[in-house]
Amino acid sequence: MLKNAPQQYKVALYVRKSSESEERQILSIDSQISHLRELAEQKGFLIKEIIEDAASAYKASNRPGFDLLMQRINQQQIDIILCWKGDRLARNMTEGGKIMDLLQEGKIKGILTPYQHYYPEDNILPLAIELGMAKQYSNDLSKNIKRGNKTKIDRGGFCHRPPCGYLNNRFEKTIIKDPDRFKVVKKIFQLMLTKQYSMPQICTIANEQWGFKTRQTKRMGGNPLKVSTLHKILTNPFYYGLVRNGNHQKIGNHTPMISQGEFYKIKDILKSQGAQKPNEKMFFAYTNLFRCQECNCSITAEEKIKYNCPKCKKKQGAKNPKQCTCGFQITKKIIQKGRHYTYYRCTKKKKLANGRKCSQPCIRKEILEEQILHHLSSINLHTEFIEFAKKALDLFTAQENKQKGLKQKKNQQKQGLIEKQLINAMKMRMADEISAEQFLSLKIELEKEKRFIQKNKIQSKDWKKEAKQSLEQVQNIRKRFLNLSPKEKKTLLNKLGSNPTLFNQKLLPDWKKHYSIFSSLQEAKTYRLESPLSQSISDLNQCEKEHHISWWSKLDEVRTFLSTEKQE
């Protein structure tokens, strides 16, 4: 039961519908809100926020509205949730368990539906049963749908929206020819089989000569034919009669547009033309990593290919097979044997204040990598210093743990005193020694002080682990960088710094602060130890601190920065 006046609670309405069409919903969003407003009015609640979702709750982390609700609860901005049913909140055990934990911890003061109320002090079993039933319903529904789809495929039916050139017959539940597009798409296949047209040429003929438009639906369609769409058409086995759903496939009942032999001939033609799927792009290691210092646009990359025609020796730069002016057919193999160059340049998407475009030139990949290696050398640390630093960090840890223990003891004493004051205030209120207003004011003040102590409670920060990882990260970094894949290079550079820029073909790195400290240590060139590393930590503190003042000062800078960053 609720202990305070209804107006004192921060109430949120949570409403959700799945991604299905509107007519298939049990209750629409507006209808849910209307019913929940009536419930709030009956209970005397003031609604602070209405959170909506239009997504399935079957999978976790699929609903931005639910994530926002959890954030509000953890920040103590919401006390009570009003929803239509428990299955509106969760249909998976991950999020269901999260809700039950928050309710039992008292962070949620209540979950109210028009038919059932759940409070922290109540038995959790009814809520667990309701959320468990919602999860089981979803599981059963998924199995039934998969079984139905398999049966439909076995009978030659189709479970998805038919591709271009076909329509759904909603009355007979079959696939029929699209009277406006079937013949046009068939002509596209015939053009491809002649081997005389490339995909861009076929798109131009279909759009300009035949007036082709994709089928208009409520949310999409009505567009001219694009190369990406054409590629999907030419590589879809549905057109020779095959229907698929997951691992199940069978020859369907619909009228095929081409034969199976013609389909595989077209696949061979596409291979000979060097056609790739539109989403199969080359990975560039340094794109979306640097910015142009002049206009602040992103740095992009492009590949250039240079080769000569084997017959006339004319220089060529086309990336796809074509016919040279001398009549010789340039094949994919000839292109692949050419010289490949990668250039990085500013996208130049923004205009400068005076209206002119960015003037920055492009830079070759090899030159850029030379500069990256040069800057990585500036933060490279030798094994000697890293071993010394790890021992020093252990010393820092011991000192910090001692101070942390003293602070935690003081905080526990303060919390105990506040608890006693709260109990005394409740006794005084029960004895009518203070009024309800005085008690409420005192309670609010004490709870505020208690929350402040908990908020500033010394937590186990992991800055030491991050410091050791940072040391290992820069150990022989130049050598390791040369052996990384392009994706690993990008990941590493993202870890080391943020907002590096390019200006006049010069890389200007912006290392994270603790890596910049390493850079200044590298400049000091003090890499020779004067005492053995086998000493104890106490010896390290007494002896090596005297001999390596610069080393200790730099480590202290790293410690201060990382520990402060974690607190923030």
UniProtKB/TrEMBL annotation:
<dbReference type="InterPro" id="IPR050639">
    <property type="entry name" value="SSR_resolvase"/>
</dbReference>
<protein>
    <recommendedName>
        <fullName>Resolvase/invertase-type recombinase catalytic domain-containing protein</fullName>
    </recommendedName>
</protein>
<dbReference type="InterPro" id="IPR038109">
    <property type="entry name" value="DNA_bind_recomb_sf"/>
</dbReference>
<dbReference type="InterPro" id="IPR006119">
    <property type="entry name" value="Resolv_N"/>
</dbReference>
<dbReference type="Pfam" id="PF00239">
    <property type="entry name" value="Resolvase"/>
</dbReference>
<dbReference type="InterPro" id="IPR036162">
    <property type="entry name" value="Resolvase-like_N_sf"/>
</dbReference>
<dbReference type="InterPro" id="IPR011109">
    <property type="entry name" value="DNA_bind_recombinase_dom"/>
</dbReference>
<dbReference type="GO" id="GO:0000150">
    <property type="term" value="F:DNA strand exchange activity"/>
</dbReference>
<dbReference type="GO" id="GO:0003677">
    <property type="term" value="F:DNA binding"/>
</dbReference>
<dbReference type="Pfam" id="PF07508">
    <property type="entry name" value="Recombinase"/>
</dbReference>
<feature type="domain" description="Recombinase">
    <location>
        <begin position="163"/>
        <end position="276"/>
    </location>
</feature>
<feature type="domain" description="Resolvase/invertase-type recombinase catalytic">
    <location>
        <begin position="10"/>
        <end position="162"/>
    </location>
</feature>
